[in-house]
């Protein structure tokens, strides 16, 4: 195996405990460049907690998270974002009172300081980039619409678009197709396959069909630990996985 | 398809400027032409006093309306601004000649009554009008910065923040009342006479100060409008609704909250200084919890999402307060309570919300062709649809 520091993301010995309960226990895994890595596992396995730890929302009790050899565990949330890690929340987390355009514009990586934001100009570069992303996330016709009035699936796409406009090297998605119609799900898989050029994606997902469609590598979590890891094919046939998860 | 979606917001932007400017011009006409023509100097001076609270209400529109940070301690900043101005005026009124009957001439009378023998060090720089003017804005902004830094960096927010600001308002009142020799105590700083030799107690001075106040208020509205229309304004709305999303889009959220809190504090302080100039004194009764909450009510009645709404709300509530307390003094507090309940239960977006809901659509009907572009535009005028309010 290659030296871990060659990986885009190297999680090693990651542990976090809430009041003595170890939600994530001595977890290690690696994400390669241009890889779609999916984390699956039963409820309470600690999947979302892993994303929270990587993006700095939760502080680790032990272990390390290295992103391009930079230690993330000591960095603040907005610094982690600037380092190139984007994260989508489980429930669509968008700004209801703003238009689709404004939602995307806020995520545009410029003018992120107080005075930078005051002086920010909506110039051609911004408009073009927003239009380009909107096209990609199927919302080009909705730029002036208040985000509140989008459908659930469109909201999910909008949030993915808000991450794409930041052009992160690592994109983390928490259940991106939950609650989507079959058609929307298909489009989302299409979208994900389109956007993984030049970046890595870490996905949490329950929908096995969807995971099979997109995953390059799968990690199965159970009670905060890795139960199995590898290709979907391998994981599916792992008796341990079948017992705790797939069998149900 | 991309092209149309690009050009549409631009068209809407122009529409919005029209609406905002129209609203501001209307207010300016009311303040600068209609009221001075229609009211005697006593009533006009009273309106001038009300308008000083409108500065606080403007700050609350940004801080509370846009960013969702409810401060129940804006009286702190109003008061400090007022005190900074009062300190300068008091020193000018306490020349050795004017105070020669005191046991220590040359210091403010209340210090003499409290057996102080010399001017305290922190009063010394207030001999300078320049220093006092800078201090009016800088001291409250600095205090807000420290409070904001301590609270927002630790992610204290919501109700907890409101309670803490209230505690600060109580602390400052107690401090001012307790340190009588340095602050004038419960009576405040009274008997202010001249500003650089210009007697501020005359009717002419009151008229001039009224116009200065009105012009400053219009200036502050324009400044607030600029802030709300900048990306910063949209970020404030975004963090009100989805703070985590903003944080994980690469923003240090606390800095934005600190900024808007400081900005609101500075606005309040300008109002406080104008209050001192027009009313001729400053006392702790404008600093504490009760006045701070009253200021929130002005803003809530007018509409916490609308700059102009907040100004009208302030005028209206204060006018009602004066009328009621002149005729039925015992009823005022009940009326105020009822008003607040009414706002919360029946019209949560205040007068501006009612305007937006019932009046604006009627005004818009004749220009039906532009109805879409104009949606939510009459903005400067009381706006409400949260989208426009955002800008």
Provide a descriptive summary of the structure in words.
The complex is a heterodimer of chains A (248) and B (391). Chain A is an alpha/beta fold and 248 residues long. Chain A has one domain (4-246): 3-Layer(aba) Sandwich (Rossmann fold), CATH 3.40.50. Helix content of chain A is 36%, strand content 24%. Chain A is built from ten helices and ten strands. Chain A has helices at 47-55, 77-83, 100-107, 114-119, 124-136, 152-164, 182-195, 208-214, 232-236, 239-246, and strands spanning 9-18, 21-31, 36-40, 62-67, 70-71, 85-88, 170-174, 200-204, 217-222, 225-230. Chain A has a six-stranded mixed β-sheet with strand order 6-7-8-3-9-10, with helices on both faces. In chain A, strands 2-1-4-5 form a four-stranded antiparallel β-sheet, covered by helices on one side. The mean pLDDT of chain A is 90. The two termini of chain B are 24 Å apart. Chain B is globular and about 70 Å long. The longest helix of chain B has 37 residues, at 2-38. Chain B has one domain (2-390). Chain B contains 17 helices and two strands. Chain B is mostly helical and 391 residues long. Chain B has a two-stranded antiparallel sheet with strand order 1-2. The interface between A and B is large, with 45 and 34 residues.
């Amino acid at each position: 195996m290659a030296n871990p520091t060659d990986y885009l993301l190297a999680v090693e010995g990651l542990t976090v405990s809430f009041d003595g309960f170890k939600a994530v226990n001595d977890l290690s895994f690696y994400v390669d460049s241009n890889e779609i890595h999916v984390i699956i596992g039963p409820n309470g396995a600690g999947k979302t907690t892993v994303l929270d730890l990587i993006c700095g929302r939760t502080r680790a009790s032990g272990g390390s998270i290295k992103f391009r050899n930079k230690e993330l565990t000591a960095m603040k949330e907005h610094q982690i974002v600037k380092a190139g890690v984007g994260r989508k929340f489980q429930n669509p987390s968008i700004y209801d009172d703003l238009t689709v355009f404004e939602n995307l514009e806020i995520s545009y990586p410029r003018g992120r300081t107080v005075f930078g934001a005051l002086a920010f100009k909506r110039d051609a570069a911004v408009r073009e980039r927003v239009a380009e992303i909107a096209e990609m996330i199927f919302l080009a016709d909705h730029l002036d619409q208040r985000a509140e009035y989008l459908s659930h699936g469109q909201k999910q796409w909008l949030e993915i678009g808000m991450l794409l406009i930041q052009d992160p090297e690592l994109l983390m998605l928490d259940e991106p197709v939950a609650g989507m119609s079959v058609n929307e799900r298909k489009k989302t898989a299409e979208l994900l396959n389109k956007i993984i050029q030049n970046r890595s994606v870490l996905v949490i997902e329950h929908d096995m069909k969807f995971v099979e469609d997109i995953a390059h590598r799968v990690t199965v979590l159970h009670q905060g630990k890795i139960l199995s890891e590898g290709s979907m094919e391998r994981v599916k046939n792992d008796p341990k996985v079948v017992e705790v998860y797939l069998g149900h | 398809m991309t092209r149309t979606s690009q050009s549409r917001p631009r068209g809407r932007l122009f529409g919005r400027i029209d609406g905002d400017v129209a609203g501001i011009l209307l207010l300016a006409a009311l303040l600068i032409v209609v009221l001075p023509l229609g009211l005697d100097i006593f009533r006009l001076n009273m309106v001038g006093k009300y308008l000083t609270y409108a500065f606080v209400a403007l700050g609350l529109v940004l801080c509370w309306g846009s960013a969702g940070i409810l401060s129940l301690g804006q009286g702190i900043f109003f008061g400090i601004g007022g005190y900074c101005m009062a300190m300068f005026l008091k020193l000018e009124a306490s020349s050795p000649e004017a105070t020669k009957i005191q046991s220590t001439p040359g210091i403010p009378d209340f210090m003499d009554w409290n057996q102080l023998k010399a001017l305290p060090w922190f009063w010394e720089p207030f001999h300078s009008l320049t220093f006092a003017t800078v201090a009016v804005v800088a001291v409250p902004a600095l205090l807000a910065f420290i409070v904001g830094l301590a609270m927002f960096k630790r992610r204290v927010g919501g109700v907890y923040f409101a309670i803490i600001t209230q505690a600060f308002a109580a602390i400052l009142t107690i401090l001012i009342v307790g340190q009588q020799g340095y602050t004038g105590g419960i009576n405040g700083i009274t008997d202010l006479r001249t500003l650089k030799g210009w007697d501020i107690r005359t009717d002419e001075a009151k008229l001039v100060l009224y116009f200065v106040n009105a012009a400053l208020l219009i200036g502050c509205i324009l400044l607030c409008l600029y802030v709300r229309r900048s990306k910063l304004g949209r970020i404030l709305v975004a963090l009100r609704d989805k703070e985590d999303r903003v944080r994980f889009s690469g923003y240090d959220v606390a800095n934005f909250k600190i900024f808007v809190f400081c900005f609101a504090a500075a606005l309040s302080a300008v109002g406080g200084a104008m209050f001192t100039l027009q009313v001729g004194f400053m006392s702790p009764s404008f600093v504490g919890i009760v006045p701070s909450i009253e200021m929130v009510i002005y803003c809530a009645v007018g509409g916490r999402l609308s700059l102009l709404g907040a100004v009208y709300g302030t005028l209206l509530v204060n006018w009602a307060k004066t009328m009621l307390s002149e005729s039925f003094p015992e009823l005022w507090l009940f009326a105020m309570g009822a008003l607040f309940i009414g706002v919360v239960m029946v019209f949560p977006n205040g007068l501006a919300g009612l305007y937006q809901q019932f009046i604006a659509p009627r005004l818009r009907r004749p220009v039906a062709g532009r109805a879409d572009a104009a949606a939510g535009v009459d903005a400067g005028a009381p706006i409400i649809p949260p989208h426009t309010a955002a800008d």
